[in-house]
From TrEMBL:
<dbReference type="Pfam" id="PF00072">
    <property type="entry name" value="Response_reg"/>
</dbReference>
<dbReference type="GO" id="GO:0000160">
    <property type="term" value="P:phosphorelay signal transduction system"/>
</dbReference>
<dbReference type="InterPro" id="IPR011006">
    <property type="entry name" value="CheY-like_superfamily"/>
</dbReference>
<feature type="domain" description="Response regulatory">
    <location>
        <begin position="1"/>
        <end position="107"/>
    </location>
</feature>
<dbReference type="InterPro" id="IPR050595">
    <property type="entry name" value="Bact_response_regulator"/>
</dbReference>
<keyword id="KW-0902">Two-component regulatory system</keyword>
<protein>
    <recommendedName>
        <fullName>Response regulatory domain-containing protein</fullName>
    </recommendedName>
</protein>
<dbReference type="InterPro" id="IPR001789">
    <property type="entry name" value="Sig_transdc_resp-reg_receiver"/>
</dbReference>
<keyword id="KW-0597">Phosphoprotein</keyword>
Length: 116
């Protein structure tokens, strides 16, 4: 995760758990209390698309909000991420106001009980 994103998340008062790939991310989900997942698409071992799919298949995490952050801004990537279970998509480089807006929107959906 970029230092810029870490700074934005810390300014928002979020605790950050980092993983270098989707498999590590799933391990974190099983060990820590996580309220939202931010993931990139391009990762070794298990990419962001596969991570979204695995989270949505899980009995424990299927309602967990997922936001994809990626340099891939092609419509096909965005549509695929949303079809795989992402709740939102933020193009990189992420700007603080956009991250805050998406975070607020996604967490509001959770509070209202709206699933993806």
């Amino acid at each position: 995760m970029s230092q810029q994103l870490c700074k934005i998340f810390k300014q928002l008062g979020l605790t950050i758990f980092e993983a270098t790939n989707g498999v590590e991310a799933l391990e974190v989900l099983h060990k820590e209390k996580v309220d939202i997942v931010f993931t990139d698409i391009v990762m070794p071992v298990m990419d962001g698309f596969e991570l979204c799919e695995e989270i949505r298949k899980s009995n424990h995490f299927f309602n967990l909000p997922i936001v994809v952050l990626s340099t891939h801004c092609d419509t096909n990537y965005i549509v695929k991420a949303l079809r795989q279970g992402a709740d939102d998509y933020i193009p990189k480089p992420a700007k603080a106001p956009i991250v805050k807006k998406v975070l607020t929107r996604v967490l509001k959906k959770v509070d209202l009980g709206i699933s993806s």
